[in-house]
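During the second half of the funding period, the structural biology subgroup turned its attention to how the target accommodates small molecules. The most pressing case was zinc ion, which had performed well in the primary screen but for which no bound structure existed. We therefore specified the complex as follows and requested a full 3D prediction, including the ligand pose.
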Amino acid sequence: MKNSIKLFRVFGISVEMHISFLILPILFWLSMGVKGVVLILGVFVCVTLHELCHALQAKKFGVRADTIILLPIGGVASMGSIPDKPYQEFRIAIAGPLFNIILAAILYYPAYRFLGPDIFFSMNLTTWPHVIAYLYWLNILLAVFNLLPAFPMDGGRILRALLARVMTLQKATRIAVGFGYLFIFLFVAWGIMTGNIWLLIIAFFVYISATQEASHVEITETLKRLKVKDILPNGYLSVGPDTKLSKVLEMIFHSHQEDFPVLDSGALAGIVTRANIISAIHQFGLDKTVRDIMIKDFPSAGLLDSLTKIHKLMEESGLRAIPIMDAGKLAGLITMEDLGKIYALMSAREGTK
Ligand SMILES: [Zn+2]
């Protein structure tokens, strides 16, 4: 993320701090002195571990999760697409709050014995033991707050995952987002009544991400229903194994096609994509032939496959063009641009709703 400082890396996950996070220690130092700074550092540790639990659980299900960004309003683990199975989203979402709750349960008795009931249950920052007690309760508050069913907070994700067991993801998301809006209203009302600016900032953040994610789900669910045959372009150019790269380059310039199937006496033998043509020309010059550089290991799909599946195949193989087969014969190519066009159309339609 822009304007963030990389702190450390653990389990392949990079933990970063957005520079706006730095206002927190300053604010707390101004209002509570050194104790305030220590308190905020403690909260920072609890939030980081909470987000790490989300990210590790996500990784376990094969969901990309490689950065955690700490913002003044909390942490965000940036993740790839939401998992297919509702129970996976459920487990990813609950992992964070569960960590805070388990930590609190383990520390309850030792903290109670060490601090004594007077300090443990008092809510002020007069002495250092008071700071420890305060931190203990803040950790619990963190879990409870995140469990509010305000999508896309953890509780909202848990709610959506539970709903998605009995209805479509689209419908479950709509309901969860509805709850999200209700909580935004409550946060704003409460924030104005108590003069708590954090609640207003959190409400704004929840609003932005709920809206974004809702429209993302609408689009991907629509893509799931569209099939390859609905968008497959008519006709395509192909190359042979002995075609010179100079000729392929000419074809790219003279047509709108940038990726080509390689046909060897009528059968699909490989594909060449824009990226691999350009890097080959860069490396070897124009004299090589398609045979030297073509990709022989590639996935293919059928006319009745969904566009979501094509997108997945592209992500997994790292290829930007997928050959489409019909009864053992090549029917055409679907490229990243084709998907991009559909995506743009859908987003435009979503925006006008
Ligand atoms: Zn969380």
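Two results from this model are relevant to the next phase. Residues 190 and 196 are 8 Å apart (CA to CA). The pocket of zinc ion is lined by residues 50, 54, 96, 146, 154 (CB under 6 Å).
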